[in-house]
Design brief:
The complex is a heterotrimer of chains A (243), B (123) and C (275). Chain A is an alpha/beta fold and 243 residues long. Chain A contains nine helices and nine strands. Chain A is globular, with a radius of gyration of 18 Å. Chain B starts with 10 loop residues before the first helix and ends with a helix. In chain B, strands 1-2 form a two-stranded antiparallel ribbon. In chain B, a hairpin with a 3-residue loop joins strand 1 and strand 2. With 275 residues, chain C is mainly alpha-helical. Chain C is 87% helix and 0% strand. In chain C, helix 4 packs across helix 6. The chains are: A alpha/beta (243), B mainly alpha (123), C mainly alpha (275). The interface between A and C is medium-sized, with 25 and 25 residues.
Chain lengths: 243, 123, 275
């Protein structure tokens, strides 16, 4: 039982909409996994359930054998797809906060990264550019030696140079034996970094395979395979299942 | 030389090829310390597990030796390096032949062309 | 974890209010001066001096009102935005329980109210001291002796303590009432703020009905209770009766507080849906 994440028959409804429709997923430690799917496929919902921000309608998820709670939150480092810092806080304040609440936070690493981004401790978040704000959030999240990193769309809405920086930061900072789950619809940019790819379509997992396996089996890149599998969905506005 | 990764072939295979080349061409000199997997992965922008697979292949090739105390070193056995050099050269040759075949040259004609061009002053 | 949460909530609170408290105290001093030199002198060289005398009083009253309103707004906002807005993404992924979050917000809200109240009292004191320091100190010095003269019935100290405790509990419960309303509002998909206000009013109405019904029950029992105590030792019996009344109120508030606390906690545990 070495699984870090285990989702069983996970369902989540929002009124009539089935955001997750029976998700079974197992993630092992020490992997970089891509959670890939078009917008609205349920990626953010799945991630929120994993880190306890949302309760499933049915089914369950276990993180290192526990239901989501304070214990699992201590070993999960989460980067949401939005800014979550109070505007008035300073860079130094955020570092203090993370250091205070998370045992696995590496303060020195965070301060180093700040310096390399030329962010001063005393700068307020409000005064940072959008790009710097996102980099700072990423930097804080990756400065933790977590067992599971949940990154929700870390490179969306970011210029190509910043994307490289972000992917490089992720690659060089995640903890030994930690698992990184990157959710994105920009597959080309992350493919090289992934161990495994999980395709999520309309709340269901339609593929979960190693990246090398996909390339060997299909002779295509993950991005190409994705486009092929989801092409019909694009044209039909998401109504049919391209398999 | 930087790592170049194409999208449709397994990454680890491409990395293996490029690492073999680096070793044979002396980018990692014989007997020198071979970089850590994480270092290489960061340089190439790929997953460490993928890079690990390539490096394991190099160990199987005999190009890289893992010593418990010294870590990984590039082999200094001349024969091994020569063998790999030959292997890589042959691979390139086969590629040349199949390329030329596409252009309409059979093996003999392709070989003759190469010979001719090789003897001329094309440096 | 709770201690850490309180630390951060308190810091953010003090950051916002220390200027206001300082201003209030300063205005107290100004008022003291103005009463002493302007109003008492009776020397109103025209309407302007009169206004100069009145202005500090006006400013003081306005500032008191502002602080009171800002405190209320702050308490609401810290919960509505700080826990259930974008900041919630940070808060609810910290390794702390929902109960700890609610507790931290409540405690800091209470501290805010207490400090504001204390500063207000201090300001009154400042006005008096600045106006006439020796007389004020003399007057204060006389208070313990004066109090000793009054024949307080046995148990008055107890009553005072009960009243203080009841006030504190009521303050906490009123904040929890706000949180419960905000949590109920969170259940809605849209216009969560409006629903929260409705929930607040709704709870108020429900409680009024409840107390009315309970009072109705209680009145018939009250004179029995009253006579039980009165028969005992006259005036001292009255103290007992009041104490019992306070006790009942305290019990009622505690129950209410527990209901609001767990009501909020359950909603946030099961139905959290940040967007």
């Amino acid at each position: 039982m070495n699984e870090l994440v285990k989702c069983e028959a996970l369902c989540r409804d929002f009124g009539p909409v089935k955001a997750l429709d029976g998700v079974d997923l197992t993630l092992e430690p020490g992997r970089i996994v891509g959670l890939l799917g078009p917008n609205g496929s349920g990626k953010t919902t799945l991630i929120k359930i994993m880190n306890g921000l949302l309760q499933p309608s049915s089914g369950e998820v276990l993180i290192a054998g526990h239901r989501p709670g304070p214990a699992t939150k201590g070993i999960i480092s989460y980067l949401p797809d939005r800014g979550y810092f109070p505007d008035w806080m300073k860079v130094g304040d955020m570092i203090d906060l993370f250091a205070d609440f998370y045992e696995d936070f590496d303060r020195v690493k965070a301060e180093d990264m700040c310096r390399s981004l030329e962010l001063a401790d005393a700068q307020t978040i409000k005064t940072l550019s959008k790009g710097n704000r996102e980099k700072m959030q990423l930097m804080l999240v990756m400065s933790r030696a977590a067992r599971l990193y949940l990154l929700d769309e870390p490179i969306a809405g970011v210029d190509p140079a910043a994307r490289d920086y972000i992917m490089h930061t992720i690659l060089t900072n995640y903890s030994e034996n930690g698992t990184v789950l990157i959710s994105t619809h920009l597959i080309e940019d992350v493919e090289q970094v992934l161990d495994e790819a999980v395709f999520l379509q309309q709340g269901r997992i339609v593929l979960h395979e190693s990246v090398d396996g996909i390339r060997e089996r299909t002779g295509k890149s993950v991005d190409a395979l994705f486009r092929e599998m989801f092409r019909t969905q694009m044209w039909n506005g998401g109504e049919s299942n391209a398999r | 030389m930087d790592f170049t990764i194409q999208s449709s072939r397994p990454i680890w295979q491409q990395l293996t090829e490029q690492l073999r080349r680096r070793i044979v061409t002396g980018v990692y000199p014989p007997g020198s310390r071979f970089p850590a997997v994480r270092e290489l992965a960061a340089e190439a922008g790929v997953n460490p597990n993928t890079m690990q697979r390539s490096v394991s292949q190099l160990e199987t090739d005999g190009l890289v030796i893992t010593n418990r105390t010294l870590g990984r070193t590039v082999t200094d056995r001349v024969e091994t390096l020569e063998e790999m050099r030959q292997t890589l050269a042959l691979e390139r040759t086969e590629e040349y032949f199949s390329d030329m075949k596409e252009l309409g040259f059979d093996r003999a004609a392709a070989a003759a062309l190469a010979q001719r061009e090789g003897e001329g002053n094309h440096e | 974890m709770l201690g850490k949460l309180i630390k951060y909530d308190l810091r953010s609170c003090l950051r916002k209010f220390w200027v206001l408290w300082l201003a209030l105290a300063a205005l107290g001093v100004v008022n003291g001066l103005s009463i002493r030199y302007v109003l008492e002198s009776g020397d109103f060289r025209g309407i302007w001096m009169f206004l100069l005398g009145i202005l500090p009083i006006i400013l003081l009253s306005v500032l008191v009102m502002i602080i009171a309103i800002m405190a209320l707004v702050y308490i609401c906002e810290r919960f509505y935005k700080g826990l259930l807005g974008d900041e919630g993404y940070l808060m609810f992924t910290l390794p702390a329980t929902t109960a700890e979050h609610i507790a931290s917000k409540s405690i800091v809200a209470l501290i805010l109210e207490l400090i504001s109240g204390l500063v207000a009292v201090l300001t009154v004191f400042l006005v008096m001291v600045v106006y006439d320091a020796p007389r004020t100190l003399e007057f204060l010095g006389k208070i313990p002796a004066y109090l000793r003269e009054i024949p307080f019935p046995r148990g008055t100290g107890w009553l005072v303590a009960e009243t203080v405790i009841l006030s504190l509990v009521m303050a906490v419960v009123s904040n929890l009432h706000i949180y419960q309303a905000i949590a109920i509002g969170h259940l809605a998909k849209k216009h969560r703020g409006a629903w929260a206000v409705l929930a607040y009013v709704g709870i108020n109405i429900a409680l009024s009905i409840l107390t009315f019904m309970l009072a109705d029950l209680g009145v018939s029992r009250f004179d029995r209770m009253f006579s039980f105590f009165f028969d005992d030792t006259g005036f001292h019996g009255a103290v007992g009766a009041i104490s019992a009344g306070l006790g009942v109120s305290l019990l009622y508030q505690l129950i209410l507080g527990v209901v609001f606390f767990f009501g909020t906690k359950v909603i946030l545990d099961r139905r959290l849906n940040l967007e």
